[in-house]
Every structure is written in C-alpha cells, then in structure tokens.
Amino acid sequence: MAGGEFAFIEQLRCRLGKMASDVRLGIGDDAAWLDPAGRQLVATMDTLVAGRHFFPEVSPEDLAWKALAVNLSDLAAMGAEARWCLLSLALPWRAEGYGEWLEAFATGWSALADRHDVTLVGGDTVATDGPLTLSITALGLSGHGVMRREAARPGDVIWVTGTLGDAAAALDLALVERGQERRAVPCSAPRRDALEARRLRPTPRLEFGAAALAGGVLCAVDCSDGFLADLGHILKASGVHAQVALDALPLSPDLADLARTDPERLQRWPLTGGDDYELILCAAPALSTALQEAARSLSLRLTAVGSILPATPDARAAVTLTWRDESLSLPFSWGHVHAL
Ligand code: ADP
Ligand code: MG
After folding, report:
1. Is 125 close to ligand 1, i.e. is its CB under 6 Å away?
2. Whose alpha carbon is nearest atom 11 of ligand 1?
3. In this structure, are 207 and 307 located in the same domain?
4. Does 28 contact ligand 1 (Cβ within 6 A)?
5. Domain with 305 in it
6. Ligand 1, from 8, 125, 126, 137: best to mutate by most atoms within 8 Å of Cβ?
7. Is 197 exposed, middle or buried (0-12, 13-18, 19+ CB in 10 A)?
8. pLDDT in tens, 182-206
9. pTM of the complete model
C-alpha cells in the first residue's frame, strides 16, 4: 500500500504513539526499542477477522476497543501489567480513504489504552483483497512470575470475576435482528443496549489479575470461548477435575431477567457463550479472604463457583455440574460454538 500509507501511519503515530518513559523509540523506525527495566516480559497476540470475529459494519470505535481488550484480557489472565502494543492492519480499501475511519478507530483505542497506560509502539499496514483483519501483539511486564493454566490443585476454589453470558445473549439478539437466529429473544431496547455494550466493549480485568498474582494465585485463564471451554483448558493442563455449582454462576440482572423464561438459554449463555473476558481463577482456600478484599477494593464482583477435584479416571466428564447440590446432566451439547 504505497502513497497514502505514509500519511496513514503518520496519523496513527500522532493519535496513538504517545511518549512513555519505557519507550526509547516508538512508531517511525524499523522497530520499536523498549525498556522493560529488568522486569519479565509477557507477550500475547490475537487476530480479529471481519465476518468471523466481528460484524463488518461494527463502528471503528467499538472495533478498536474490542481488538485491544481481547489482547489485554490475555495479559490480565497472566497477572501482567499491560505496557505496549503492536498493531497489524490488513485493510480492504486504499489507505487514502482511511482518514475518518482511523480517527474513529483511534478514539475507541485510546478510550481503553489510556485507562491502562498502554502505548502503541509499532505495527504494520497492508492492503488486502480479503476481509478487514487486525492482529495485535500486546506486551506486559511482571515482577512475580505469571498465573498459569497448569497450576490448579485439588481443593482450590474456582472464582469468576464479573458476570457471565451477557455477550452471548447480545450475540443471539443481534443474530435474531439479522434473521440468522430463528428463536426470538423477547427483550426491551434498553436491556438489549446494555447487553450489547458488554459484547462490544468488554473490560479486561488487568488490575484484578495483577492483584491476584501478587496475592499468591498461581492459576488463571480469561474467559473468551465460554466458561466451560476455558475452565476445561485449566483442567486439562492441570490434570484435575472440577465441580461447578450452576446456581452460583454470576449473572447480570439483565441476563437473569431475560433468561428467566428460557431455562435452556439460562444455562447455555453463561456456560458456553463466549466473549465475556472475565477471569477464571483457581486458588487455595487460604487466599479467599484476600482475594475477596482485592475485588471489593476494585468494586469488582467476584464469585466462588466451585472447586477443583482430583481426576478420577472413570468419571464421565471432567466437570460435574450441580444445581442446589444435586448433580445435573446437561440438556445441550457444550462444545464451544464459534461465533461472531
Ligand atoms: P518497515 O517497512 O521498515 O517495516 P513500515 O513502513 O511498515 O516500516 O512502518 C513504518 C513505521 O510505522 C514502523 O515504525 C511501524 O512499526 C509503524 N507502523 C506501521 N503500521 C502501523 C500500524 N498499523 N500501527 C502502528 N504502527 C505502525
Ligand atoms: Mg513494515
């Protein structure tokens, strides 16, 4: 992408490439030069493709927020402090036409990046005949190691931040509106907007992730593919099983109301719906009070939803679900549904 590319990158640099003391060289040279000041580097990358991970008509503000949020959420799950990002853009149009798009994109990006003091330090910009595609590399720092999927132990309490299922409900609502989902979801406009805001602008739990790690939590994952799928990653990596109380799963009042008349969705949205970007943590019971205190000081809901059990070879599934202490068999298939 010649010609307009330079103006495009200059606009990006002006809007997003702010100075920071740990950035020796940011956007503009062949590579960024960063100064982690002796701390450990934590790196992650996520790609979003139009039509697969977002509706092509999404606003550039919301798109920027979400693309950054999903990457910061991965750093949160490790307990790292987010510092820097690199952004690769494959644009299906010519760069000359991108001034307004980029301005709006930069607004959505900074709304989240400034909250966490994250600097854009480089990237790549190419034209493509394919769909709009964004790849972000997020770099964070840690002084106390990281939280890992393989570190859950029998006896650990399973914690979840925030609430589960809002984004999945919002996606169903959006699919109904588009005629792609036949079963209607009766919902008022304000409630629909509240759920949609959760889907479009997830909140990466960076402060809580860092506090949990500092407090001694060893195991966490972020909830991007659905609670059961992501808890499943922990169970597989750690070689353990779990018991989860379905009646303890944290639901927003909007979701609880919406799903009251539809028990199948009431279970499916929080259990298998993706895109929540909450954290699932496994921690020894001795850490419970400190974790609850950390969550309270951040005004963040934190819920104990179950416990880690030793693996039993003859168990039918790695997760036993209970409802009011009775074990439950699921009325639906609980594979992760890939969706927008
Ligand atoms: P090179 O050809 O040396 O790779 P580029 O022309 O691709 O350089 O990029 C010039 C500068 O602009 C580099 O510092 C690069 O990191 C930055 N840059 C290019 N595209 C982006 C982008 N989408 N976001 C942030 N920085 C970018
Ligand atoms: Mg380049």
Report:
1. yes
2. 28
3. yes
4. yes
5. 149-327
6. 125
7. middle
8. 788 888 999 999 999 999 999 999 9
9. 0.94
